[in-house]
Amino acid sequence: MSVEINLSNLNAKADQIKRLSQPGTMEKIGQKVIELNMAQIRGQQDAAGNPFPAYTPRWQEWRSKHKRNPGVVDLTISGAMLAGLGVVRVQEGEVEVGFNSVSEKRKAKGELYNKKRPIRFVGLHDKSREKLFEWIRERFLRVNS
What we know:
Helix content is 46%, strand content 9%. It has six helices and two strands.
């Protein structure tokens, strides 16, 4: 009995991984993370894939008065917080998505509003992570036959 191992693609894969970890590629991956994260938010799902909790009756009333749908949790008053979500740090093999603005960061953490029940919405749930990995495989890790 014998075991055969074919390492002919090893160098090609090492080159692909090296290219994948370059800052320019990591920036693109960060932008894709933001795109997927915003799709989750539009779908009213938090970073764990759970539905956003309903607004409190008081907040629903405020939204109704201001011609906003009280039944749709969209995490926006002005849109500034979500517009501030971006790539904040890139280095070889790493990308960080978050907020550059201290006030937007505080809003997102629930320090300014919604203190009693903050929504953890920055991050990708399992389905979105799978979409990201598939996108990376298709775009950056093609195997040449």
